[in-house]
Design goal:
Length: 359
């Protein structure tokens, strides 16, 4: 069944509209003078894969009634744009398993435009790629220019073991379809001890050969996953040292305002990013906020602080209450995360799974 969303602006509803007066709204600046311009918006906690570092096989998903409707997601995003957010990444769970998700992309795609007019500079998504083959063209039409696809291995058996689903061919098809649709693809790979560590150079060389950048990520202690995190944790400093024996890596100043540090690989001609929450703290330049599919705003991926935007949205005065909730989020955004990977017996640093807040 179609959710029947009518999220085409202009709308009649008593909610936040992006208009000339929006520019009068104060920008989002936190207590550490970090300007927030980037929203990661999760549209579902559901997923068609079960990556072993992300969620258990028997994952309990949220009742659908708790998840924001597409219209509410659009209203929220509009509220953020009105406060100066210029980049939105749609994430999950797996965003492309959400029914009618292209309607949300279409509506948000209409917000793309010049900054002086309060426009969105970039609309993008993070996906596991399983549904990308059927959505790539439509995404490109909505104004999406780049997609991040998560891919940790090119070995089909290893992929099936790691994600608990035999879906590598679909993912590769999805990546090819994205490229064919004119989308720039960046691959994200979580570096996993004893799983893909020996394969990372091949994965990087393959991706660069296809014209795709790659970012490597250290596993983070989010949620219980039936596996021992310390057994999965592979410090990227070690990976980089190994790669330096093989290739010439040159620091690249490319900055996204995000946590990745980039290098150019002379031999492959591609760019490689490292996201190292453990070995290097990346919080000083943090420009982002994260919202779950139920409208919980987490000012920090690695912290428990949270603000309920759904309550604000569903209240009698959504505009005022959303503004107040965003101010509260800015007030409580911590200076930095406190992930640790050195205590085998400890509970996960953060009880919620990565699939709640997205990546
Ligand atoms: N399903 C989509 C995907 O996999 O791209 C989007 C959501 S997924 C939670 C976003 C990213 O988080 C993926 O690149 C995934 O590899 C990464 N991720 C999930 N759990 C993680 C963890 N515990 N530590 C580090 N990265 C994680
Ligand atoms: Fe699904 Fe992405 Fe988590 Fe894998 S990392 S289980 S694809 S949400």
């Amino acid at each position: 069944m179609n959710e029947g969303v009518q999220i085409d602006p202009p709308r009649q509803r008593d909610l936040i509209e992006l208009n000339a007066s929006a520019s009068a709204l104060p920008p989002l600046v936190d207590n550490f003078q970090r300007r927030i311009t980037y929203l990661r918006l999760s549209v579902t906690d559901r997923c068609d894969l079960r990556c072993s570092y992300c969620m258990p096989e028997r994952m309990t998903f949220l009742p659908k009634a708790e998840v924001l409707t597409l219209e509410e997601l659009h209203d929220l995003a509009t509220g953020f744009i009105a406060r100066g957010v210029t980049k939105i990444r749609i994430t999950g769970g797996e965003p492309l398993v959400r029914r009618d998700i292209i309607d949300l992309f279409t509506a948000l795609g209409r917000r793309l435009g010049p900054k002086e007019h309060g426009g969105l500079a970039e609309l993008t998504l993070t996906t596991n790629g399983t549904q990308l083959a059927s959505h790539a063209e439509a995404l490109a039409h909505t104004g999406v220019k780049r997609v991040n696809v998560s891919l940790d291995t090119l070995d089909r058996a290893k992929f099936a073991k790691l994600t608990r689903r035999d879906a590598l061919p679909q993912v590769l098809e999805g990546i090819a379809a994205a490229k064919a649709a004119g989308l720039r693809v960046k691959l994200n790979a979580v570096a996993l001890k004893g799983i893909n560590e020996g394969e990372l150079p091949d994965l990087i060389a393959w991706a660069h050969g296809q014209g795709h950048d790659v970012t490597l990520i250290e596993v983070m202690p989010l949620g219980d996953v039936e596996e021992e995190r310390l057994d999965q944790y592979l410090p990227l400093d070690d990976v980089r040292r190994d790669l330096e024996h093989r290739w010439t890596l040159t620091d690249n100043a490319h900055a996204t305002g995000g946590p990745a540090r980039y290098v150019d690989v002379a031999e492959t001609g591609g760019r490689l990013g490292f996201i190292t929450p453990h070995t290097n703290n990346f919080c000083a330049g943090c420009n982002r906020l994260r919202v779950t599919a139920t409208g919980q705003l987490y000012p920090c991926l690695g912290g428990g602080e949270q603000v309920d935007l759904r309550a604000a949205l569903r209240s009698d005065a959504p505009e005022a209450n959303l503004a107040a909730a965003l101010d509260e989020a800015l007030r409580i955004k911590p200076e930095k995360h406190h992930f640790r990977m050195d205590n085998r017996d400890a509970a996960p640093a953060v009880p919620r799974h990565m699939s709640m807040t997205g990546g």
